[in-house]
Amino acid sequence: MLPLLLLLPLRQTLFAPSSAPFSRLFTTRAISTSTSLWRPSITARTGAGAVSAVFGQTRGMKVRSSVKKLCDGCKSVRRKGGKYVYIICDKNPKHKQRQG
């Protein structure tokens, strides 16, 4: 974290009042654009709450060189002509794995 003494000159230049309305508009637009790029969660909260409730999170599977059963609900399955070994779990979806 930068000390406050180093941030003070930067803050004064960014938020200094200017006489030209165009430069003030340009500075405000640049600050808001960079903030939305850094923290997309700020802009996503405004109207995307209803959309995210409709679509659930789809969990993928881990790809490992050596798969193993992690609990008693995990099952080993061979698919695609025996090329891949899958671990599928009924109890915990985080345990899904594929060897490859």
UniProtKB/TrEMBL annotation:
<keyword id="KW-0732">Signal</keyword>
<dbReference type="GO" id="GO:0005840">
    <property type="term" value="C:ribosome"/>
</dbReference>
<dbReference type="Pfam" id="PF00444">
    <property type="entry name" value="Ribosomal_L36"/>
</dbReference>
<dbReference type="GO" id="GO:0006412">
    <property type="term" value="P:translation"/>
</dbReference>
<dbReference type="InterPro" id="IPR035977">
    <property type="entry name" value="Ribosomal_bL36_sp"/>
</dbReference>
<keyword id="KW-0687">Ribonucleoprotein</keyword>
<keyword id="KW-0689">Ribosomal protein</keyword>
<dbReference type="InterPro" id="IPR000473">
    <property type="entry name" value="Ribosomal_bL36"/>
</dbReference>
<dbReference type="GO" id="GO:1990904">
    <property type="term" value="C:ribonucleoprotein complex"/>
</dbReference>
<dbReference type="InterPro" id="IPR052010">
    <property type="entry name" value="Ribosomal_LSU_bL36"/>
</dbReference>
<protein>
    <recommendedName>
        <fullName>Ribosomal protein</fullName>
    </recommendedName>
</protein>
<comment type="similarity">
    <text>Belongs to the bacterial ribosomal protein bL36 family.</text>
</comment>
<feature type="signal peptide">
    <location>
        <begin position="1"/>
        <end position="15"/>
    </location>
</feature>
<dbReference type="GO" id="GO:0003735">
    <property type="term" value="F:structural constituent of ribosome"/>
</dbReference>
